[in-house]
Amino acid sequence: MDRKLLTGLQVTLGFLLGVALNVVVFQAGLLLAYFLRSSTAQWIHQGLMIAPGAIQLIYQIPLILFLRLRRHRGLALGVILAASVYALLNALFLWLAMSGKVDL
Q: Is residue 104 domain-resident?
């Protein structure tokens, strides 16, 4: 198999892994906030809406380091790309919410 194709496939799989992690963690946080229905739930909801980048660092950095140590550089690059896209989308929606164009 061609080396470039293998690397492209690994980056794609890493990107899909990163997207799946972001979706699962975000949905888990929303479900947790829904079931708690307390001041803690309000804190979780605000954390998910205001500081998703900080929450994302908690689970993305160890995964990236683990993949790099296992010499899966293509997968690690894909996860980094997914984390970057997620962070940019969060910054966009936070800017829209702060400007009053979207009500969260």
A: no
